[in-house]
Design a protein that fits this description.
By secondary structure, the chain is of the alpha+beta class. 17% of the residues lie in helices and 23% in strands. The protein contains three helices and five strands. It has a five-stranded mixed sheet. The longest helix has 7 residues. It is globular. The chain binds FE2/S2 (inorganic) cluster.
């Protein structure tokens, strides 16, 4: 199991277990987190926007240009924003911490 901590815009904390290969978006939705994922991971929306904890951001594979383009259209984007549907669980990410942007609430 790979543990991910979600922090809501209000500061509520929920720890969720995922499995290798699962996307961050899938884990979030399975646990009832308010991430819509409208385009079903096609990188055609930004409703899966999450803000990665600074300590973890550099441990993720870099985003591709299409992901950057979608993030440009999201609200409340920060330097360490990513699309949750493009982050896939692996053992090294055990303990990953992400925050939801205000628009997700
Ligand atoms: Fe649409 Fe991630 S679900 S970009």
């Amino acid at each position: 199991m790979i543990k991910v901590t979600f922090i809501s815009a209000d500061g509520d904390v929920q720890e969720i277990n995922g499995v290798e290969g699962q996307s961050l978006l899938d884990i979030a939705q399975a646990a009832g987190q308010p991430l819509e994922g409208t385009c079903e991971s096609q990188m055609a929306c930004s409703t899966c926007h999450v803000i990665i904890d600074k300590d973890w951001f550099d441990k993720l594979p870099r985003s591709v240009e299409d992901e950057e383009d979608m993030l440009d259209q999201a609200f409340f984007v920060e330097d360490n924003s990513r699309l949750g549907c493009q982050i896939f669980m692996r053992e090294e990410l055990d303990g990953l911490t992400v925050r939801l942007a205000e628009e997700s609430e």
